[in-house]
Amino acid sequence: KADTYTVDTKVSVAEPQDYSVLSYTKAVDTFDRTKRPVAGQAKAVSVPNFYTSKFKNGMKVIGTKSDEIPTVTLQLTIPGGHRLLANNTGKAGIASLTASLMNEDTENYTSEDFTSELDKLGSSIRIGSGTEDTYVTVQSLKKNLDKTLVLLEERLFRPKFAQDDFDRLKKQQLEGIANQSTQPTAIASSVYNKLLYGDNHIMAIPTSGTTESVTSITLDDVKQFYAANFTPTGSALVVVGDITEKEIIGKLVFGAEGGQISPEFYSVLFTMHATVMIFLVIIPVLAGAFGNYL
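Above: the chain sequence. Below: its structure as tokens.
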């Protein structure tokens, strides 16, 4: 169609606004703003009834029954995370890489097949790593919990650690590290940790590691880290959902597996500054840095 639109070149003049019918009402209160408010009385926290248990291999269990919806959520915390590299910072980032690999192929399932089985059940299983531990989150309908736990056992005890998965995830982790070096907030956090703990302290290194440390990690390193640090000894399981203590304990057959000695954590020391200090990081090649801070 032909463009028949004609631009109106006339100057638009706003009509005068009449505020004469409006009135201002000043807010009135009895609050004395010259005095600092005092803390009120602490309210009692209502904690639901819960149970605790412990397996012979050292794994602790705490749970509570909630039957509002027919689901069960499990949170397994395994001692073994970033801090384990305190004496081997040259491999920093291996805890994160190991957890990522455990979300991939297992000995009996490809990653796609494993995900498909979970989808059929309406369940989810995710493994991640933090500063001090590796965590496993499981969500399932109560009626499908048995089948979901079978898949959980497969994921925990039979990861495949395939070379192609390792190469892909290692590349992704390195790309993520490179991206962080362009983010002002990530740079500020990194500098702060180095000032607090010291350049070579494990807590001054991001959990994803550095370009140098991740580049040096091999698939054998991952397998050794898994074998040495993934143990039920010292682990903790939290259970919340439509299930009783007797029911869930009877289902956690793999919790009876023998465990190794819990991995050792090293003391975390940091530097205390006597006065407030401001540190300025200047990165000329970082376009838009000040805009991001603003």
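Strands lie at 51-54, 60-65, 71-79, 124-129, 133-141, 236-241.
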